[in-house]
UniProtKB/TrEMBL annotation:
Organism for this UniProt entry: Acetomicrobium hydrogeniformans ATCC BAA-1850
Protein name: LysR substrate binding domain protein
Domain of life per record: Bacteria
InterPro entries on file: LysR_HTH_N (IPR000847), LysR_subst-bd (IPR005119), WH-like_DNA-bd_sf (IPR036388), WH_DNA-bd_sf (IPR036390)
SUPFAM superfamilies, per the entry: Periplasmic binding protein-like II, Winged helix' DNA-binding domain
Amino acid sequence: MSYTNDKGRDDEMTLQQLKTFLAVCEEMSITQAAFKLFITQSAVSQQIKALEEEFDIKLFEKRGRRLCITAEGKIFRDSAKEIVENAELIVEKLKASKSLEVGKLNMASTHHLAQYLLMNPLLEFHKSYPKIDLSLHTLDASEIKSAVESKTVDIGFMPDGAAVFSPHLRITKIYEDRMALIAWPGHPWREEEKIKPSQLSGEPLVFASTPSSINEIALAFLKRHHIHIDTVIDVGNIDLLKEAVRHRVGVALTSKLAVREDISQGSLIELPLSGIDELSFNFLMLTHKEEEPSYPSWAFQKILKGYLP
């Protein structure tokens, strides 16, 4: 707190002066206050004098050998206590924030990313920092972008797209995915070295309309290669798509991220489709350019990196 007093002198009240004043109030002795604060008696006297001159008041007076607080001193004491307590509370909150004992983390993601990329990092974050209030909202891409721009959420996760760019956003590529042609383990094509796109013509194909971005990539690939599909089965989402493929309803073009564990466990296989490398796409992390990452945001991003290739 700095200002020019009515005597034309620049003064500055410090937190240490207030603590010294309160120590004198508690001890009612310059000597005892100095002993308590591990400073000299002259330092205590100088700080009290500086406060009195700054506010043009008398904080203490001598009555015989006793030191007594004045009426103005009592008013000043109440305000000084509040200032010091608030300052100490700020320090405590900052320490707690740095140690992640308090705080909030709000995020938004597409359902696909939340389920297949973010779930394990989220579980680890909650286990490591159980006192942090954690929220993950599943939204579509345009809603995620708007939520980060408006600072409604701290971090957004979404697939790449032309509409992602914004002068207000910091955009980071976090994962490169690609499509995979999947089938059940006993599929007749399992021994083939390469499968031409034309071989898909007439083959029953399972689709998942959600997420739409994955579905659009699959349809665009079929159109680009002039592939006619006789039987199309739309099961709504990728979990049902995988179940339908396991039950031999048909093969499917879907996100490799969504089926990597199933392939690893052997419940599904990936067929070697020619041209599959052209079906790659990125997943992005969005943060606001004007916002420095909070401690919870920084901690989550650090955990997430451990799960990325």
